[in-house]
Amino acid sequence: MHLDHDRRGAVGGSLVDGAGLPSPSSAAESGPRWQSPPGTPAGPPPTDRALRVGVGGPVGSGKTALVAALCRVLAGRVRLAVVTNDIYTTEDADFLRAAGVLDPVRIRAVETGCCPHTAIRDDITANLDAVEDLEAELGRLDLILVESGGDNLTATFSYGLIDRQIFVIDVAGGDKVPRKGGPGVANSDLLVINKTDLAPLVGADLEVMARDAAAMRGERADRPVLFTNLRSDTGAADVADWVLAQLPSPAHPR
Length: 254
Ligand SMILES: Nc1nc2c(ncn2[C@@H]2O[C@H](COP(=O)(O)OP(=O)(O)OP(=O)(O)O)[C@@H](O)[C@H]2O)c(=O)[nH]1
Ligand SMILES: [Mg+2]
Hints:
By secondary structure, this protein is of the alpha/beta class. Helices cover about 30% and strands about 15% of the residues. It has helices at about 25-30, 65-75, 90-100, 115-120, 125-140, 175-180, 185, 200, 205-215, 235-245; strands at about 15, 35, 50-55, 80-85, 105-110, 145, 165-170, 190-195, 225. The strands form 2 sheets. The protein has a 7-stranded parallel sheet with strand order 5-4-6-3-7-8-9, with helices on both faces. A two-stranded antiparallel ribbon has the order 1-2. β4 (about 80-85), α3 and β5 (about 105-110) form a beta-alpha-beta unit. Bound molecules: guanosine-5'-triphosphate and magnesium ion.
């Protein structure tokens, strides 16, 4: 059992004003209910093993689409492998293999059989096993992407499993989502707001989302927010550049 491995301290944010109601308009106007806890900067990247980057977020927000896009950009540049999590299937790993974005031997599926957040935060054994198996079988890797099963705004990774975490939300749920907060929105190392192409269809204002997300995240330059439309790969290169910047040194050629 791996219980609560967070080596950077608490990941969860704190209610700033427990008695207050959420702002009906914007976090920027009322102040965020969630704040990044102080003293939890990303640790230095590991030099003796691959950097592990978690990709989490609500169901259907575009996590697999992001992993696929990152594979397309990065597979020729770094030694890369992927672990996917699904509750009852290997759907996401099957999708990535079928899409041909990465050599199938570099893709592992974890069938959690339980709430996704349990397997990435509370008992990370199955995911650690998958990561370590990949490293043992493929030799030295630069980067391992670990996609969580789709969960909700409270799901975050244990830093005992990953070194950086990307949280993916989308605009389809409306422009209120960033100001609803939660540890993924507030404290992830990178927040990706996907499906910008759907904004006009659902009446989502991207500027409101950007402003509220920045307010939730404490306007921290080391925790950026990037917008993507993964239908057309728009913004994927920016996410890939952010991932590359997390590596400890110029990545080794494959
Ligand atoms: N319009 C639009 N659709 C997108 C975009 N990104 C992903 N999708 C679609 O949204 C659906 C869900 O995308 P996935 O990448 O499977 O989402 P996910 O977060 O991995 O889903 P789960 O793993 O099931 O939680 C798919 O049908 C994608 O084709 C986008 O930027 N725009
Ligand atoms: Mg997925």
